[in-house]
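Run log, item B.
One chain of 352 residues. Sequence copied directly from the ordering sheet:
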Amino acid sequence: MKKYSFATGSPRAEAGNYDIIVELETTIARFVGKPAAMVFGMGFATNSTTIPALCGKGTLIISDTLNHNSIVNGSRASGAVVRVFRHNDPNDLEKLLRDSIVEGQPRTRRPWKKIIIIVEGIYSMEGEICRLPEIVELKKKYRAYLYVDEAHSIGALGKNGRGVCEHWGVDPNDIDILMGTFTKAFGSVGGYISAEKHIIDFLKSSAYGQIYATGMSPPCAQQALAALKVIMGEDGTDEGRKRIERLHDNSNFFRKGLKKMGFHVFGDRDSPVVPMMMYHPAKLPGLSRAMLARGIAVVIVGFPVTPLLLSRVRFCISSGHTREDMEYALKQIDEVGDILLLKYGIKQKDEK
């Protein structure tokens, strides 16, 4: 703060660029395995201002039906044609790709200038990991482009926290655009786009989030950079590796505990996003207040973020949680679940 002040006060193209922001860009590109990267001061704006720069008239965006609102807004603002496929369903995606290529653009039937598939690494309200290997195979088969939002998977999935590509063993070069945010695993603000250098150079001169928005706050850039170096082990310790392992252990322990008690839980193994279904909107404030009275703050999610009858509570697990924290929370959730009649699932036996 003493060296750089609190804010840049200017877009990067004018006077808002700092060496610490450039270092963050080169480090995140190296971390995710891409040639170049660019950072934004706001995570939501990373998607909502980059997608309109990449897409336009004559472009087809094929989006997962449960993609984040920032992707939805960016796609609508682009002027491209948007079609959606069933959540995390490669078969439906292939059918949509095939039909779209055969039919071409509306009215003229001309071939699409480009087709971009947009998915998320971990879906923020479902806790599910995208079926990346199958989606990459379809992307290659139909010569489309692939844009992956790693807001919840970067720094969380994979042995070294490098995200959904490492989790599945997919080559990052098979992904055209890797997007992520610094607001989850890195404890900061903002986001990044990582891709080939010529794509990044183009976006720096065309994405509204770069041209008009002020540059990323230097203290926030330092926070993201410091966390990134810990995860990469460049701080001289193995703390990053230990935290990734602990995060996976905590997530799997907590998810298994909820299922064992009979709650209806979404999400995949190793995902730190653990949604527990509540369904009845009137039970949302009841759970929130009952848990707060027991010293636990929880995030309840209802309409319009989710459909009216698919309300849920979303637990975001941290490597900072101890096993005692997990056990205490599960005990309290068990008691409140009995009071509010939330145990819609089938009680499961211990997993091996």
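Observations after the first pass:
- The chain has a mean pLDDT of 93.
- The chain has two domains: 19-232, 239-340.
Flagged for discussion on Thursday.
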